[in-house]
Design goal:
Blueprint (H helix, E strand, L loop, with lengths): L1 H15 L5 H27 L20 E9 L6 E8 L5 E9 L5 H19 L4 E5 L2 H8 L9 H13 L3 E5 L6 H7 L7 E5 L4 H12 L3
Helix pairs in contact: 1-2, 2-7, 3-5, 4-5, 6-7
């Protein structure tokens, strides 16, 4: 939590030119940690209570099988801005957060283009990390169908789709599937983490909003 506070206030200095004292940063991080502990205790307590609520299938993140990994990926387009961001999270069968990554691109993009680009970046990230047996999840049904289908795409997303298909043709241990948006909330939060244009941020400790989603996903079974 302290490391995340340092990173957070560093961004405040870079982007908003706001400077805080070390004492303020430490006290703020301790307060955030206490609030997080309270939030976690509420989630755990609520999971123990009997409930009659019926969840729609696929509305919650599910853990991969033991020995396999999962990457959730999402894109976020800033309204009125000529840029978009993508976020991805690598998790395991325990529901643990292994690593995250966010990227920001300074170019206009349609929703389909941004989502297809996000899946492509996620696949390239997996390959670069050398991990195997990975399930990639995206809440873009159109992009997932295009990647898993046989049709050729000549639109603006054609090169992204073809790139994804090429990777999957070689890596049979990687598959891509669609999930509902509610099952992809942590990746959505990751895509909204501040990042410099045309750059990426590798995240080893999840920020608070991402952490809240990860804890929720790991604490309550379907």
């Amino acid at each position: 939590m302290t490391l995340w506070a340092i990173w957070f206030f560093r961004n405040k200095k870079v982007w908003d030119n706001k400077i805080v004292t070390p004492d303020f940063a430490v006290n703020w991080s301790l307060k955030q940690l206490q609030e997080w502990k309270i939030a976690v205790s509420k989630v755990i307590d609520s999971s123990k209570r009997p409930t009659t609520v019926i969840r729609r299938e696929g509305t919650k993140w599910t853990r991969p099988e033991q020995g396999k990994l999962k990457v959730n990926v999402d894109a976020s387009i800033e309204q009125g801005s000529s840029c978009y961001s993508i976020g991805m999270i690598l998790g395991d069968h325990t529901g643990g957060f292994l690593e995250g990554k966010t990227m920001k691109f300074s170019r206009m993009a349609t929703v389909m283009e941004a989502e297809a680009s996000a899946i492509e970046e996620a696949l390239e990230w997996i390959v670069s990390k050398g991990v195997t047996e990975v399930l990639v999840e995206s809440d873009s049904q159109l992009a997932v169908q295009a990647i898993n289908g046989n049709a050729s795409f000549q639109l603006e997303v054609g090169h992204n789709i073809d790139s994804c298909k090429s990777i999957l043709a070689v890596r049979k241990d990687i598959c891509v599937r669609h999930v509902r948006r509610l099952a992809n909330r942590a990746a959505h939060c990751m895509a909204r983490i501040p990042c410099e244009l045309n750059a990426c941020v590798n995240v080893m400790i999840p920020p608070r909003k991402v952490l809240d989603s990860v804890v929720y996903d790991a604490s309550i079974d379907e």
